[in-house]
Amino acid sequence: MECRVKWIEGGMSFLAETGSNHVVMMDGPPEAGGRNLAPRPMELLLAGTGGCTAFDVVSILKKGRHAVQGCEVSLQAERAETDPKVFTRIHFHFRVSGTGLKPEVVERAIALSKEKYCSASIMLGKTAEITHDFEIIAV
């Protein structure tokens, strides 16, 4: 995996080009010299973690032939007050929708992501307390 990040002169904007040839912009707040045009790097880290675990949960449920039709995860994070301002606590709230989904099946998919598959949340779990809850929406 690779990525190239380039500073866009004149502020605190950065352009990242991923190894899969996708581009994402990052920026800082005005008080740090940014123009608030794009997410902060730590916001992208949090978003990537949500994407990683949601990907796992959907994949696990589909492989188990469960009728999953939607998955949304909301993340709430707290950071240390002093540098380095690492994440110290992250709570994941999953909203999984489908037909006939059983709580124990969804709970197991989330646990597998947390304990085995989601590289991002497992890595962040080295500095942050990670908690999860979920709700099932019948469709």
Automatic annotation (TrEMBL):
InterPro entries the UniProt entry points to: KH_dom-like_a/b, OsmC/Ohr_fam, OsmC/Ohrsf
Pfam families: OsmC
Endpoints of the signal sequence: none
Gene3D superfamilies: 2.20.25.10, 3.30.300.20
Name of the protein in its database record: Putative redox protein
Species whose genome carries this gene: Propionivibrio dicarboxylicus
